[in-house]
């Protein structure tokens, strides 16, 4: 440590930063963490993963109560949404989770600084606190884990009242009559689902010709079908939004369609969900000469080290998927690397999940990637509607698709849309980490009746076209 106060200081307390800090402390480093907000946990815990899932669960209960309970023989009258209570419960889930992180910092003897961190030089960080006072700390090494912020497009200014991002959408105290969602990606579909289930008319304007375009294309097609049919989503593909404005209690959006004609939309709210930008504002990177790439992300090598040797970076602020578990894996990797261990991250096997209902999840190569790479493959598919478990719970939509190497039968990708896909995909991750063949999954016992039987059946279909129940 030499003359420095800390061995390693982490800037940012999201799932990248706080997990890195815990692992560093476990490995014996004298560790500090700096967070500009008074709540730890970053985007994910405060305005991302956790609150969005809390509202997805609440809205799903309402949707089931209003649409499906009757079929189960449960009759309700006077069903209504209490938005204040729904938001209050979500806030409680967030604060319990955030308190948990505070406890973990204390338990692991990590020093927490609340304030905005900015580099003075490569071993000194100034921390500006809420009351305006400043404190300097010194550290042998730093990890930048400052995450990301919502991005917008030219002509669309976020006014945070009618033209909003996910952050404001998570705190709406009313059920809007209508909402335009710009962007058919993950946030658009998840937050769109929350409000559509509560009764909002959702129109999604998407630049490309499919939903969640980074995932296997069959998943996007299927979720489009289900959201249109079940929740009344309307989709406008190949539309490029060029402007948005607020007019009293309404917001307007202008887009150009594929024929270059102007199309006008109007709704109570406009949710901008066109991606997120890396957040390095005010961090003083120019002072120490840390390089950014052409998309503003902190440039790192395979060891997550920047061009300044004692400064590292992880999570949303660097290249790769903007996912909480990817950020955490990088935090653990880096801590172990700095302790002289030989950790490894298999980026291909970081799963992607969209928490709509049915859920959407994928891991490994998509079918389009295998085609592009010229890798010979075979495909197995099984529809959930063929399962007794799905009939019992009325979760009939969706399928499991397994892609395996044509010659070796090694599983190369698993793509699921269906009930509990977010949890089911873990079987694909484990199988692929152990380089299992489709036949391996096909011969392992899967409890009956479970949704996981669809994986066994898809594996049977992939390995020898011998699914049992279709
Ligand atoms: P962040 O979580 O963004 O944390 C960075 C922290 O650094 C912040 O607390 C910030 O205040 C702090 N900071 C920044 N600059 C400074 C500074 N100069 N000084 C001090 N502190 C600073 N991912 C999933 O995997 N699953 C999901 O279900 C999921 N749902 C999401 C839902 C929504 C609505 C959103 C917006 C995102 C969601 N994500 C989800 C993405 C996930 O939140 C991010 O990938 C994850 O939070 C990235 O972690 P991070 O540690 O890199 O950064
Ligand atoms: P995204 O990248 O998932 O989707 C953005 C969409 O907007 C794309 O489909 C894009 O084609 C479209 N778009 C871009 N410009 C447009 C324009 N001018 N007009 C119309 N459409 C346009 O980004 P999103 O949904 O904002 O999410 C941000 C990040 O947060 C994602 O990278 C995601 O990984 C993460 N996240 C993860 C979740 C999860 O893991 N379940 C949930 C929510 C967010």
Q: In words, what does this structure look like?
A:
By secondary structure, the protein is α/β, with parallel strands linked by helices. The protein has three domains: 6-150 and 277-347, FAD/NAD(P)-binding domain; 163-274, FAD/NAD(P)-binding domain (3-Layer(bba) Sandwich); 358-464, FAD/NAD-linked reductase, C-terminal dimerisation domain (Enolase-like, domain 1), CATH 3.30.390. Helices cover 33% and strands 25% of the residues. It contains 14 helices and 22 strands. The chain has helices at residues 17-26, 42-47, 49-67, 83-107, 166-169, 186-198, 217-231, 285-288, 324-338, 367-373, 388-393, 421-433, 438-443, 453-464; strands spanning 6-11, 31-35, 111-114, 116-121, 124-128, 134-144, 148-150, 163-164, 178-182, 201-205, 234-236, 240-247, 250-256, 262-267, 269-272, 276-278, 311-313, 352-354, 359-364, 377-383, 399-405, 411-418. Strands 1, 2, 3, 4, 5, 6 and 17 form a seven-stranded mixed β-sheet that branches. It is globular. 1,4-dihydronicotinamide adenine dinucleotide is lined by residues 153, 182-188, 190, 205-208, 213, 240-241, 273-276, 321-323, 353-355.
Characteristic key phrases:
binds flavin-adenine dinucleotide, five-stranded parallel sheet, seven-stranded mixed sheet, Enolase-like, domain 1, FAD/NAD(P)-binding domain, 470 residues, alpha/beta, 22 strands, 14 helices, binds 1,4-dihydronicotinamide adenine dinucleotide
């Amino acid at each position: 440590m030499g003359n420095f106060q800390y061995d390693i200081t982490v800037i940012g307390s999201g799932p990248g930063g706080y997990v890195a800090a815990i692992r560093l402390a476990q490995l014996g480093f004298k560790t500090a963490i700096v967070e500009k907000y008074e709540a730890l946990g970053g985007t994910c815990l405060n305005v991302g993963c956790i609150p969005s899932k809390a509202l997805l669960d609440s809205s799903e209960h309402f949707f089931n109560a209003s649409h499906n309970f009757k079929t189960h023989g449960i009759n309700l009258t006077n069903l209504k949404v209490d938005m204040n209570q729904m938001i209050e419960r979500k806030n409680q889930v967030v604060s319990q989770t955030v308190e948990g992180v505070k406890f973990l910092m204390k338990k692991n003897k990590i020093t927490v600084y609340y304030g905005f961190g900015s580099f003075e030089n490569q071993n000194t960080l100034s921390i500006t606190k809420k009351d305006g006072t400043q404190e300097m700390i010194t550290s042998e090494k730093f990890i930048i884990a400052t995450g990301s912020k919502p991005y917008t497009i030219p002509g669309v200014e976020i006014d945070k009242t009618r033209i909003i991002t996910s952050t404001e959408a998570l705190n709406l105290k009313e059920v809007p009559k209508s909402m335009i969602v710009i962007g058919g990606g993950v946030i658009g579909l998840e937050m769109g689902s929350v409000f559509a289930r509560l009764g909002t008319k959702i129109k999604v304007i998407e630049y490309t010709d499919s939903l969640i375009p980074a995932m296997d294309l069959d998943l996007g097609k299927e979720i489009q079908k289900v959201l249109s049919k079940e929740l009344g989503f309307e989709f406008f593909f190949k539309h490029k939004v060029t402007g948005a404005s607020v007019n009293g209690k309404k917001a307007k959006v202008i887009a150009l369609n594929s024929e270059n004609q102007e199309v006008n939309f109007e709704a109570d709210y406009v949710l901008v969900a066109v991606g997120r930008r890396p957040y390095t504002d005010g961090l003083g990177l120019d002072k120490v000469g840390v390089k950014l790439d052409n998309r503003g992300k902190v440039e790192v090598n395979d060891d997550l080290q920047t061009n300044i040797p004692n400064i590292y970076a992880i999570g949303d602020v660097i290249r790769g998927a903007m996912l909480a578990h990817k950020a955490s894996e990088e935090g653990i990797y880096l801590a172990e690397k700095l302790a002289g261990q030989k950790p490894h991250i298999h980026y291909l096997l970081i799963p992607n999940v969209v928490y709509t209902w049915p859920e959407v999840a994928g891991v490994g190569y998509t079918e389009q990637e295998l085609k592009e790479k010229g890798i010979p493959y075979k495909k197995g598919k099984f529809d959930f509607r063929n399962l007794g478990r799905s009939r019992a719970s009325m979760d009939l939509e969706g399928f499991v698709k397994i892609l395996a190497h044509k010659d070796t039968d090694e599983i190369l990708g698993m793509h699921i849309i269906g009930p509990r896909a977010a949890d089911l995909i873990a079987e694909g991750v484990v199988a692929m980490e152990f380089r299992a063949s489709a036949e391996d999954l096909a011969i392992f016992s899967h409890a009956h009746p479970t949704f996981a039987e669809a994986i066994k059946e898809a594996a049977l279909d992939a390995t020898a076209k011998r699914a049992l129940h279709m």
